[in-house]
Amino acid sequence: MIPQGRPVKTEAEIAEIAGIPLTTWRRREAPALRRRIQPVNPGDRLRLYDAAQVTAHLEGRPIPPAPSGDEPHPDDLLNTDEAATLLGVESGTVRSYATEGYLTGTEIHGTRWYTRREVEARAAAGDQRHGPRTATERRTAEVAQWLADAAAGTRPAVTAADVQTHYGLAERAARQTLAKARKYAGTN
After folding, report:
1. Residue 103's closest CA among 85, 80, 81?
2. Where are the domains of the chain?
3. Is the CATH number of domain 77-124 3.30.70.1670?
4. In the chain, at which end, N or C, are there fewer CB atoms within 10 A of the end residue's CB?
């Protein structure tokens, strides 16, 4: 977790601040830093360190305590594993949510982070889907609405030619879409 309002630094940034090439810094300086400061994202490949702690370490001052995280803040940034734990799902599900647009997150140093607010909102939404996900599903739902409107008498009957013209589909694809829409609308 990256606590709200706490900037982070990568080891490459720390080496640059120290004015040492990264490979040299990792060999000479990194062990001392790693003994004194825990990364904010333990276990991740790219280690991120609290910027205030890094600055204190580099200046030879006492290291300020890391935020305890006892009181969660809505703007805390959670990594994929932390978001998965909060949602009660696997990490792969969180990545799927991001791909499908159910979670957006932000990328910091090549890692996707999600605000606690966004993850809690996703948890509150439950497992419901927010409407059709693919263009085909959206098209089928729209044509099903046309069929419902036609059944209510507010629209003329829907034909495969209407679907073909409206969406620019091949004749066979238009017929398949109309058949799926009829099944979807229950007007088979």
Report:
1. 80
2. 8-59, 77-124, 135-185
3. no
4. C
